[in-house]
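INTERNAL AUDIT FORM
Audit reference: QA-55
Scope: verify that the stored structure record matches its stored sequence.
Auditor: D.O.
Record contents follow.
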Amino acid sequence: MTNEEKQLLLADLCARLPYGVMVECSIECGESIDLILSTSHIDELVDNSLIVKPYLRPMSSMTDEEKGISEQIYKDSGFWAHFDWLNANHFDYRGLIPMGLALEAPEGMYKTE
């Protein structure tokens, strides 16, 4: 992982901390575990002792209803509220999945109903 990729991933993970994003944490030997992101995982990523990949939803998985909500939030509340909504709903608006910095969330991983 390049320094630029690491900085992008750190910025993304920090923004997602309040929203209970699931991550895969692994160490160099290949062992991994899925859990909810915490600040300790970010510290370990910074220290290079842990590989952290969030499970995110591709933008293409957004339903028509979610598209309507997303557009309305942007119109009503602006730029930052829109990104808060995208983070809260675990969307990969930074393109981390194709870069190999995030994993595609399995369908239903973030269902709240």
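Auditor finding: record pair retrieved intact. The radius of gyration is 14 Å.
Action required: none
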